[in-house]
Amino acid sequence: MFTSINPATGAPGESFAELTADEIETKLQRAAQAYKSWRATDYATRTALLSAIAEQFEANRQRLAEIAVREMGKTLKSALAEVDKCAVGFRHYAQEGPAMLAPREIATSGGRATARWLPIGAVLAVMPWNFPYWQVVRFLAPTIMAGNVGLLKHASSVQGVGAAIEEMVIAAGAPAGLFQNLAIKSDKVDALIADDRIAAVTLTGSEGAGMKVAEAAGRALKKVVLELGGSDPFIVMPSADLDLAAKTAVTARVQNTGQSCVCAKRMIVHADIYDAFLEKFAAGMQAVKAGDPMDAATDIGPLSSEAQRQTVLDQLEMIQKEGGKLLFGGEALPGKGAYMSTGILVDVPIDHAVAKEELFGPVAMLFKVDDIDAAIALANDVPFGLGSSIWTNDAAERERFEREIEAGMTAVNQMLSSSPEAPFGGIKRSGHGRELGPYGLHEFMNLKTVLG
User: Fold this and answer.
1) What is the reported pLDDT for 351?
2) Which H/E stretch holds residue 140?
3) Is residue 419 part of a domain?
4) Does residue 306 fall inside a structural domain?
5) Which one, out of 15, 24, 350, 396, has a CA that is 20 to 30 A from the CA of 411?
6) What is the pLDDT of residues 318-339, one digit of tens each?
7) What φ, ψ does residue 400 adopt, rounded to 5°?
8) Per residue in 185-220, is it b (16+ CB within 10 Å) or e — as a string?
9) Would you place residue 352 in the very low, low, confident or very high pLDDT band (cuts 50, 70, 90)?
10) CATH of the domain at 240
11) Which residues are catalytic?
12) How many domains, in total, are found in the chain?
C-alpha cells in the first residue's frame, strides 16, 4: 500500500494499493498487445493523440497541479507551470514529430541507402518525485510518437500523479495498454527489465538507483537512458552583468525548493567581484519566502519529505565539521511540515567529498577563484556532469567554457532549464543518453539502414 504524505502538514493523503504479481502480468500483456497495433499506426494518428493529451492536461491543469502540491510540496504556481509545460511538450512532438522521423537518404560508395527510425516496443520509465509530471512527459510524448508503448514506475510518494497521468492519456482516447501506471515498489523493477516484453528502460533518479537499473539492463542487454542528477556550477566572471547574475543565481538555486537536478548548486565567482556578488546574492537568498505552497506569495514550499530535509541537514552538518561555514540559514523551520530556510555555505574544502556532493535543498555553496583556469578546474572537479551556467560577456571566455566544462548542457548568461526542443542529459556520473528534441525521440527506436 502506498500512502502519500503532505510535506507541508505531515498529514496522510490518498492511498493506493500495490499491484499483485497477477496484475503486473496483466499489464504486461496489455502493453504487448497494444504495441502490436500502435506500432503500425500512421503519424497522423499518433500526433492526434498527442494533441488530445495536451488538451486534457490543459483542461485539468488546476486539479493536476493540486495533486503535485499535496504529494511533494511544490508551490501551486510552479505546479501549474509544470502542467502547462507538459502540454507544450505533447504539442511539440505532435507538430514536429513527423519531420523528426522522416527517412534520411544517404549516399554510399555502393549506391543508395536510407536511414529509417522504427519503434522497438514497450519502454519502462522509472521516474522521481521532484517534477512528477514533466519527468514522465519527457519520456511519454516521444514514446507515443515513436510508435512504442509506455509503462511507468513512479516514485512511491507521487502515486496520485502517476494515476492522474494515466487518466489523462485514457481520456484523450488512447488505446488500452498504450500507457499504464504501475503502482509497484523498486524491488519489482529488475524482474520487469528482464521480461522479454520490455524493450528498453529510462530512469531519472539517484546514482544508486541508476547503477541498479543499468546493471539489470546490462544483464538483459537492453538499451537504457539514465539521468542521475548533478552538482551544477554557476560561474560568474568580471565581465558579467552582476545584478542579473546574482538575481538569477537565487532562482537557479531555490527553484523547486532546491530539489532539481539542474539547480545551480555551486556558485563559482571570480575574486574581483566575489564580495559584490556575495552581498547581492545573500540579500536575494534571505528574501526568499518559505510558506504554504498553495499561497501565491510563497516562493518555496517544504522539502518533499521529512526524510529529505534530514538528508540535507545531515550534509550541512558534515560540511561544517570539515571546515565549511554557514553564513546564515540552512535550518529546519519550526512547526509542521518539512520546511527549511535558505542558506549560503562558504569556505567549503574543495578537496573533500562533501564539496562534490549534490545538495538537494535550498542552500548554495559559494567558491572564490582567481581566474578562468581555476573556475573551469573547480567546475569539473566533481563526479557529475549534468548542467552548468556561465556568466561572461567576454567571447573568448565563453568559447573556453563551452568547450572545456564537462557537462551535457551549458547555459550562457541565463539559468539552465529544459525545453521540449533541446536535448537534455549529462555525462560522467550524471548518466548517459538524452531526452527531448529529436535525440530523445530517436533514443528508443531502431535506426534501420535500408540499402537499395
Assistant:
1) 85
2) helix 134-146
3) no
4) yes
5) 350
6) 999 999 999 999 999 999 999 9
7) -65, -45
8) eeeebbebbebebbbbbbbbbebebbebbbebbeeb
9) confident
10) 3.40.309.10
11) 227, 261
12) 2
